[in-house]
């Protein structure tokens, strides 16, 4: 399969910004015709903007206890955040919980700082403790569920989590490796505002087995163009090793939830305009603002 991906330089001021962790089933969302890169992008962008408004969720009050899994860079945070807004439940990323604890004066803060300062991994017990505290706080506030982002990552974590809360569904996002690699290498961060962008234009030619995949760049606004930086670890060698380690660690986790009939595997067919409505259909959900 041939793949081409172009890294866009920051656009001139004339270019407008197009942007802004129960049945077992293996879903191939790439069936049917693929999007032409020139078709319906404006309409899709308009619909996506509408779907992110603050209108009350029609699903509020229903219990959703969901987990998002997926390789680094696949877009777990993006889709988890969108579902969080649609369903009216919090999006909980364990990385955010650790950062919040590090910036506080809590009981775990000093111990966490000691671990992080020495480059050590945060033990499972700490993560579960922070997550349990967050879930309890949510329960006291009347939250009716949650979406966990990127956790658990090991079978041990999954087993411990079972003793803390009941997971209804685990959504495992997948993306073709060549697209995932290009996406990771195209990531950029604004050094001033902290905004996340992606300068990669991914265009994978189709063949007899897979349709064409097109993912446009997520370009920054003009005021951020000259301030873009790349993460030091976003090199091809490092990204490939990161993906190898992730796959090795999480395959047992996938099997853990597959045996429990809680795993939904969703192959991303392209960018957000194409993938979002298909993900909703796979989850038997409707976005009332679309």
From TrEMBL:
InterPro entries: Adenyl_kin_sub, Adenylat/UMP-CMP_kin, Adenylat_kinase_CS, P-loop_NTPase. It catalyses: AMP + ATP = 2 ADP. Transmembrane segments: none annotated. GO terms for molecular function: AMP kinase activity; nucleotide binding. Keywords: Kinase, Nucleotide-binding, Transferase. Its EC number is 2.7.4.3. It is an enzyme of class 2 (transferase). The keyword DNA damage does not apply. Belongs to the adenylate kinase family. PANTHER family: NUCLEOTIDE KINASE. Monomer. NCBIfam families: adk. This is adenylate kinase. The lineage of its organism: Eukaryota, Viridiplantae, Streptophyta, Embryophyta, Tracheophyta.
């Amino acid at each position: 399969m041939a793949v081409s991906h172009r890294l866009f330089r920051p656009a001139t001021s004339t270019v407008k910004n197009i942007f802004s962790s129960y049945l077992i089933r293996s879903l191939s969302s790439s069936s049917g015709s693929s999007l032409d890169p020139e078709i319906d992008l404006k309409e899709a962008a308009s619909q996506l903007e509408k779907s992110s408004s603050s209108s009350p969720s029609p699903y509020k009050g229903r219990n959703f206890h969901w987990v998002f899994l997926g390789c680094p860079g696949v877009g777990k945070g993006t889709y988890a955040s969108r579902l969080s807004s649609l369903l009216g439940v919090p999006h909980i990323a364990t990385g955010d919980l650790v950062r919040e604890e590090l910036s506080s004066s809590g009981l775990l803060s000093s111990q966490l700082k000691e671990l992080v300062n020495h480059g050590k991994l945060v033990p499972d017990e700490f993560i579960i403790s922070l997550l349990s505290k967050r879930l309890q706080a949510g329960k006291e506030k009347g939250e009716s569920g949650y979406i966990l982002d990127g956790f658990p990552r090991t079978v041990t974590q999954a087993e411990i989590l079972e003793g803390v809360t009941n997971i209804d569904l685990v959504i495992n996002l997948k993306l073709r490796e060549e697209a995932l690699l290009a996406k990771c290498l195209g990531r950029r961060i604004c050094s001033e505002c902290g905004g996340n962008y992606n300068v990669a234009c991914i265009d994978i030619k189709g063949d007899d087995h897979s349709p064409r995949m097109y993912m446009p760049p997520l370009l920054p606004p003009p005021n951020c163009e000259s301030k873009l930086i790349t993460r030091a670890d976003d090199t091809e060698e490092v990204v490939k090793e990161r993906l190898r380690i992730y796959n090795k660690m999480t395959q047992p986790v996938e099997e853990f939830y597959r045996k429990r009939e809680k795993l939904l595997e969703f192959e991303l067919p392209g960018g957000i305009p194409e993938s979002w409505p298909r993900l909703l259909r796979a989850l038997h959900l409707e976005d009332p603002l679309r």
